[in-house]
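Milestone M4 deliverable, item 7.
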Amino acid sequence: MSKAIRRAGILAGAIAAGLSLAFTATAAKADNIRIAYIEPLSGPFANVGDAGLRHFRFAAERINAEGGILGRQVEIVPMDNQQSAQESQALLQRAIDRGIPFVTQGNGSDVAGALVAGIDRHNRRNPNNRVLFLNYAAVDPALTNERCSFWHFRFDAQSDIKLEALTNYMQERDDIKKVFLINQDYSHGHAVAATAKRMLAEKRPDIEIVGETLHPIGQVRDFSPYINRIRRSGADSVITGNWGNDLALMVRAAEDAGLDVNFYTYYGGGLGVPAALGKAGAGRLLQITEWHSNVPFEEDLTENREWMKAFDERNPEINWYYQRIYNQMYMLKAAIEEAGTTEAKAVANALAGMSFESPTGTVYMRADDHQLIQPMYISVMDADVEYDVENSGVGFRTIAKIPAEETVVPTSCEMRRP
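Output delivered:
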């Protein structure tokens, strides 16, 4: 055999071996259980999208280290929607075209609504290629009421649940006389404002709403005009559903102006807010959440603390914040294992009505509307706690725990089931 022929044979063998390895790697990756993460990874809310991505990837790594799901690895596929509902719909189609069976999103109820509509439409037309939407943070009540969907599951407490708890607490505070409402100008912000007014009128009709404003989402760089308006109103308390930079910039402007009010928030525990306020926020900023880093050891939270510390060592600038992502990922794991498949309808049927032992107690996915029912905590910013957040010198201290059964609110959902 000539040297040229022998070299050609060796080269052909090497190419064949390389193609075989590449095919094996591609097949292995295609066998992963993939979750499309559709969130802003650029623009004014990029920090929020990045924080969520780190949480999901950490949870996936832990599940994979435990053997994965049905012996398959979990893969998070990031997709940048630039906080656009229209772009999110395009990314949804891209995820479907790639054969990804699960979609997760949370930042922006307008985006969530667009995804619900798109998935409903796709699943009706394509019964052999259906997709499931796992919502970890979009809290507009409509998504589990008049716009509820069999293909949508919410793992965060919806807005009415959070406001029910906050206004119950405020009801007992004699020092609250005047409240100002400031929220982002989209469906979530509108829902917070309307529900806060209704609940305060029912529980404390003596409290005066001295001002209300809605501002463009993700567009305000200088909140000082809004802070001046709050000061002129004479408010002693502010209720806001703001999140991301819209909340961090607002509280920073309040601190710079020396505004002496208490902030009642949904999202004051992370994503730049503690770093913006520091010790100046102690005793003045409150939040309603499903978890915080100083949740008391009423239950055995040793494993949860280990999880938190491992994440925080890797991500000291953001810390573990979305405990509901833990719940979502492990409930999805349990549902897939119960169904024995990743097929959307089978997994949805396994998730609906599921009870799950979370680190803070039993949670369950209400079958009527696919809303997770879970214990909630009201906490206040405090400098004298074991764990601070964002290297700010402050963390959060629990002032009220609301058992899961006390967070239940009625639903008007009339779910169409396939």
